[in-house]
Prior knowledge:
- The chain is α+β, with helices and mostly antiparallel strands.
- It has one domain (about 5-115).
- Helices cover about 35% and strands about 30% of the residues.
- It is built from 3 helices and 6 strands.
- It has helices at about 15-25, 30-45, 100-115, and strands spanning about 5-10, 55-60, 60-70, 70-80, 85-95, 120.
- The protein has a 6-stranded mixed beta sheet, with helices on both faces.
- The protein starts with a strand and ends in a 7-residue tail after the last strand.
Amino acid sequence: MPEISVFFYKDGNRIPVLDWLKELKRTDRQGYAKCVARIRMLSQLGHELRRPLADYLDQGIYELRIRRGRVNYRILYFFYGQEASVLAHAITKDDQIPRRDLDRAVERKRVFEANPDQHLFEGDVTNG
Length: 128
């Protein structure tokens, strides 16, 4: 399967996942590096990425699963057509993904699909 494009969801001047990654880079460089590697893997494997690296959650939302020691990082995303995915939300979690975080990703997906051009950020995660 060919590579897919990976984009960030943006809301006005905010780019939630990129902002989260910038903070993670500041506080946990190794965790940041693992997240970037997983995003690249998503780009390479797209719809073929499976557990334990990624998983389907609900309502078209998937998660990238990153573990560093006892810390679990999750980047929630959705597919836009067959050739793109959009990183919608990111969290550090203990057990299950809180419902409010999943709901936030679902809402971002809905808003994005209504007006993709307004909510699409094409940036390189390594420039953060």
